Amino acid sequence: MLGTLMQGRKYLCNLIDDVYKTKYYRSYFRSGFSNADIQRRTFRVTCTRGNSESISLGSNALCIDKPLEWPTGKRTSFKFHAETEAAMNEQINTEFKAFYYYLSMAAYFGRVDVALPGCESYFMQMHQEEHEHALKVLNYVKMRGGQAHLCPIVPPIDPDWKCPLYAFKTALGLEIEVSEKLVAVNAIAEKHGDLNASDFIVTGFMEDQMKSVNEMARFVTILSGIGDQALARFIFDKDLIENHVLADFNVLKKK
């Protein structure tokens, strides 16, 4: 029995020494301790060699596969100018602003005392689209070796959108703002000879953005003509949900 214990102690000492020298905690290190020891994180091992040298491992030794020295990363990018990166970060936050406003509009038109499911569904769809655009730009910045900087989103001054005309006028302004930012990002990318960033903006966003501006402008024109007539507003809302909303965003089908 004593011989077995001595062999076990020698094995454990060699194991700890190996871990100490390689600077990595290997997965098999866990097998030497009970679950209770690991949970308490207070287990300590002292291995005494013939020369009275001791090695002590505290609770940090229970971190499996964790290197003692973490590598320091270095940002690597190919012609991704700081000005282009800053412009794209501004674009991300502009997209998130539109995303936030559209969610506010959808919530308003979904209220019981407003009850315009077409407007609610349409703005939920726009809300999702802006969210996807923001993430698309954010992921591109990361791919180019840049850093994404998110800013606080300023909420709408008045979350009571009153009527569809007021909401769609605001939405048109948002789409124009997003488009202008995209044009500015593209101009900065071209100034610094960043063909990839320019192509990303032009082919990935501009055509869809022009379609959104055109669509919002048409809705504003229609709503300006019908005024505040309840029946006309109902017909507009019905046409909106039937012809301009994807099935996944149709709140009537979800309910």
Automatic annotation (TrEMBL):
Keywords, ordered alphabetically: Iron, Iron storage, Metal-binding, Oxidoreductase
Gene3D superfamilies registered for this protein in UniProt: 1.20.1260.10
Superkingdom of origin: Eukaryota
Enzyme class label: oxidoreductase
InterPro entries the record matches: Ferritin (IPR001519), Ferritin-like (IPR012347), Ferritin-like_diiron (IPR009040), Ferritin-like_SF (IPR009078), Ferritin_DPS_dom (IPR008331)
Record-level GO BP terms: intracellular iron ion homeostasis; iron ion transport
Keyword Metal-binding tagged: yes
Catalysed reaction equations from the record: 4 Fe(2+) + O2 + 4 H(+) = 4 Fe(3+) + 2 H2O
Gene Ontology molecular function, alphabetical: ferric iron binding; ferrous iron binding; ferroxidase activity
Pfam families found in the cross-reference section: Ferritin
Domain Ferritin-like diiron, first and last residues per copy: 78-227
Function: Stores iron in a soluble, non-toxic, readily available form. Important for iron homeostasis. Iron is taken up in the ferrous form and deposited as ferric hydroxides after oxidation.
Protein name: Ferritin
Organism: Odynerus spinipes
Upper taxonomic lineage: Eukaryota, Metazoa, Ecdysozoa, Arthropoda, Hexapoda
